[in-house]
Design goal:
The protein is α/β, with parallel strands linked by helices and 662 residues long. 40% of the residues lie in helices and 22% in strands. Helix 4 (82-93) links the parallel strand 3 (73-77) and strand 4. Helix 3 packs across helix 7 and helix 9 crosses helix 10.
């Protein structure tokens, strides 16, 4: 079988303008090629495009036999599993709309989405998700049918609305036997303007909104990005991020079906890094937090390595920092540097990439938050083609992408194909593209506020286009404020600088309408715990470790370094951190402090931790007290009562360059 080229690999999306049509086309053009893989009991099992097509056609028929009708909404709840991805296409083939739901949502969070979306069918991965659905079903009058994938623990459930995946497939085979061609006829009724998927926002400032995206939005945007990056059927990706997140939908569904590459699902969330090493994907996406966690693990292991190994690692990494990025981008370097880098590839970079599962990565993306320049450079210097992109649910992801050879740590790239960008007088970033969402479901007011009559979308982010034509994002527009002396206050910008340090997991900055900037800091338990072990520091809990004086000294150094960096930057030099504290607990989505995509819910935190914020702005206070309810991993509630130390940070005199600019 000859290998496809970039020019021949992308289908005509005018003809194949829905996912069911693309699947049927891929079953013909990519017959025998793997479409998906799943690891079960330690063994990878593959399905080809033609096998997936047959399964989905039977699945769609089974759903229709159970009563699924055009326009119905189908909830999908669970970890990344091929059958759950197939559910989306099977529902679309029957004219229904898939609605993926965050699998780690508690029942009450799930209830809002299912009720708001008017869910009639729900497909769940396992007993845990089925139990959540059953617990709220009596408050969901539209929910009639629940289908489950894994049968373990569900054999004795006798509810007449419950059906196993296998039983639905059997119904579908019988249905297709009785009415051959019925599914093809339904598929032909679908078109580019039909709703492809409804994805709910994370709900940073309130209840989530249902973002309606058409087949045109998803497929055209996916094709544009595939063409720009040269994605092929021979590429491979791994699906491990939440299915309810638009990024996973684009990478694991949109681009997968357009380019025809294989998507693999890990055995579990706990085995992702192991499975990543086994797969060695060529196309990989991870938010900055994942890349930070991987690097933290590497550095912890190196601290525990022998002296010779540490010395060799340090030597070659220093060389990679000097010339690695230039070599990756094809810029000239001396023959001696190339030779030394080749030795580094043999002894350090290659084995390291192999251990991390990044040896074969052609294209790597990170997005969602700013990634630390040092972390970004680390991966690129060892030969990983890591790039930043900027996007949103309302854009079907892609707004900007960093072009090859134009990759900078402080920008998110240039406009993606067919995307226009404008900067409003307020500094807010606006965009217009084929990916612009149709509407917010049952929320015309919010739709009108976000999308103008001529198709421009308000991102809510503040940014600017630099002299290179690249977009820079400063912060959320609504979060950008001013200190009482008029200094610009951009909290996310400051928080990201803090999170660049491997010992800091999360941070929340305060300062708008205040005399100075202050911050909450969450330590990284793994990194700081490893440091404590190496230094003979005993602790019994996160709270105890976070309160340790030597840990405070460590974080003080990071805060002082952030202030040093801020002092040299024109726009934010006046918003250095004056006071900070280490929170005695991790910020947690289950406690309402973060969204399910790990974004800080500022309003909620400001209300919940108001006594600590008050103490930060009382310069005579050396500590603050907090009494709060917390949620344990098993769902039980508890109380946290703690006295938290407050530290003074070192304020750096503004550099002459920044002062002159002001």
């Amino acid at each position: 079988m000859s290998e496809p080229t970039a020019a021949s690999s992308l289908p005509d999306i005018v003809t194949y303008n829905t996912f069911p049509k693309l699947l049927r086309h891929n079953a013909e053009r990519l017959r025998g090629r793997p479409a998906s893989r799943e690891k079960n009991y330690g063994i990878w099992q593959s399905c080809t495009w033609d096998e997936v097509y047959e399964e989905v056609w039977n699945y769609a028929a089974g759903l229709m036999d159970l009563g699924l009708a055009r326009g119905d909404k189908v909830a999908i709840v669970g970890d990344n599993r091929p059958r759950l991805y197939w559910t989306m296409v099977a529902a679309q083939a029957a004219g229904a709309v898939p609605v993926p739901v965050y699998q780690d949502s508690v029942a009450e969070e799930m209830h809002f989405v299912l009720e708001h979306a008017e869910i009639r069918f729900a497909v769940a991965e396992d007993q845990e998700q089925v139990d959540k659905l059953i617990s709220i079903k009596d408050r969901l009058p539209s929910l009639e049918t629940i289908i489950f994938d894994e049968t373990r623990g569900l054999r004795d459930y006798t509810h007449d609305f419950l059906h196993s995946y296998d039983s639905v497939i059997e119904r579908g085979r019988a249905f297709n036997g009785r009415e051959p061609g019925r599914i093809d006829a339904e598929v032909e009724k679908g078109g580019k303007d039909d709703t492809s998927v409804m994805v709910y926002t994370s709900g940073t400032t309130g209840q989530p909104k249902g973002v309606v995206l058409s087949f045109e939005n998803i497929i055209r945007t996916s094709r544009n990005a595939c063409e720009r990056e040269g994605l092929l059927p021979t590429d491979e990706a791994m699906a491990y991020l939440p299915m309810a997140w638009i990024g996973d939908h684009i990478f694991s569904m949109g681009q997968c079906y357009v380019a025809g590459f294989c998507v693999s699902c890990p055995e579990s969330s706990e085995t992702v890094l192991t499975d990543l090493r086994e797969l060695g994907p060529s196309y990989f996406f991870a938010p900055p937090r994942i890349f930070e966690n991987i690097l933290t693990t590497v550095m912890i292991r190196m601290e525990d390595a022998g002296r010779l190994k540490r010395k060799m690692f340090s030597y070659f990494m220093d060389h990679a920092k000097r010339v690695g990025v230039d070599i990756l981008d094809g810029r000239p370097v001396s023959a001696g540097d190339k030779l030394l880098y080749g030795l580094g590839e043999l002894f350090v970079y290659g084995p390291l990439k192999n251990v991390l599962g990044l040896s074969r990565v052609r294209i790597g993306y990170t997005a969602g938050e700013a990634i630390g320049p040092d972390i970004f450079q680390f991966y690129r210097s060892i030969g990983v083609n890591l790039k930043q992109l900027y996007g949103s649910t309302e854009a079907a992801v892609f707004v900007t992408i960093q072009p090859n050879s134009e990759i900078f740590a402080d920008t998110v790239g240039t406009p993606a194909p067919e995307v226009e960008i404008d900067i409003a007088e307020s500094g807010e970033v606006l965009f217009r593209s084929p990916g612009v969402f149709v509407e917010y479901f049952k929320n015309p007011e919010a739709t009108k506020e976000t999308k103008t009559a001529d198709g421009w979308v308000h991102t809510g982010d503040a940014g600017f286009i630099d002299e290179r034509g690249h977009l820079k994002i400063i912060d959320r527009a609504k979060d950008v404020g001013r200190l009482n002396d008029g200094s610009l206050f951009a909290p996310k910008y400051i928080e990201n600088k803090l999170k660049f340090f491997p010992n800091i997991k999360e941070a929340v900055a305060f300062g708008h309408d205040q005399d100075y900037c202050a911050a909450f800091v969450n330590i990284d338990l793994e990194a700081v715990g490893s440091w404590a072990e190496r230094n003979g520091i005993a602790y019994a809990s996160y709270q105890e470790l976070a309160a340790h004086p030597q840990v405070y000294e460590m974080i003080q150094g990071a805060v002082d370094q952030v202030n040093q960096d801020l002092s040299s930057e024109e726009r934010v030099a006046g918003s250095q951190i004056k006071r900070f504290l280490l929170l005695p607990k991790m910020l947690d989505a289950d406690d309402g402090e973060l969204t399910r995509t790990s974004k800080v819910r500022r309003g909620f935190i400001a209300e919940k931790y108001e006594p600590l914020i008050t103490a930060l702005y009382d310069e005579s206070a050396k500590a603050g007290k907090i009494e709060s309810e917390i949620t344990f991993e098993d769902g039980r509630k508890g109380r946290l009562d703690a006295t938290v130390d407050i530290r003074e940070a070192k304020i750096i005199s503004i550099s002459p360059q920044a002062a002159a600019a002001e």
